[in-house]
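Progress report, Aim 2. The chain analyzed during this reporting quarter is listed below.
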Amino acid sequence: MKIMPELPEVQTIVSELNRKLKKRTIKSVTVNAPKMISMGPHTVSNIRVADNGKVALFKKMLVGRRITAVKRRAKLIIINLSRPSDALGTPSPFLGEGNKVRASLSLLVHLKMTGQFIFEDDRLREKTGGKYRMFNNLTAPPVKLPGKHTHVIFEFTDGSHLYFNDIRKFGYMKLVRDDEIDQVKELLEYGPEPLDNEFTIGAFEAAASKAPMGKIKQVLMNPKVVAGIGNIYSDEILFHAGVRPTRRVSSLSDKELSAVYKWIKSVLTKAIKAKGSSVGDFVRTDGSWGQMGKYHFVYGRKGQKCKKCGTIIQSVKLNGRTGSFCPNCQK
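Predicted structure tokens for the chain:
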């Protein structure tokens, strides 16, 4: 099952990487799939061309930099990097005129469908033997890293490594100067963060009202309305709110919209505490699995009994995406 990591999964990775990577200095970078890296604020095309010159510059720009923080915006991971350690900076046209600008950079990472980060230090390597199960299946054989699906490797000065794995190669890494972050289209188009204080019921109603004829599941999954919600958590939110995924926004009462808003925050908060849902290919940064799947009420449970009322869970297709629901608990 190929499911894109959503806000709770990405937040789990970000929190763990921020703790593990902060203050580490990059010693070397290996790029095995040139098409997966990019430079500058432009949008990364689905049709990507390998560029060895770009790879050489990408590596040169990263070596010697210290990681200062790891953050998240919607499903995008943002790795903040220090200015270069040398006095003049790294000569590069990417840095702007004069080739000696000492710019701070950010590495933007989108996992897409099957992207994974594994951080391995001596302690974890000794515990695992360097082998990790890349699929959320107990019968899947452990894979020694780096493996054939490891496309970018960061080695740090203390000997630890960060592996970026991606079976489908849909994910990407984009290196951007901090003074051009506001030109990154993806960041400009994201809607409000659902767990921020600014995401009030009024803000949610205003955003949802822009698509009155939209079906509520699709509206929740629209990153311009709410950032970071996908197939898994839209199903779970709507189950707890008692609203079917096919309902149009205009048909929802104030009480129903309020319930959806309440459960957005509640479900996402619980999922973060459970370290995400390990369905598809999602793993944590030490290769372990998230536990939120134990608490799914409808997602992935078509044909099973509802945990609340015993009615059989049904599903419906919405523009190619499957929405699961309980026909008794959701109206």
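Residues 201-325 form a domain with the Helicase, Ruva Protein; domain 3 fold (CATH 1.10.8.50). The chain has eight helices and 13 strands. These observations will guide the mutagenesis work planned for the next reporting period.
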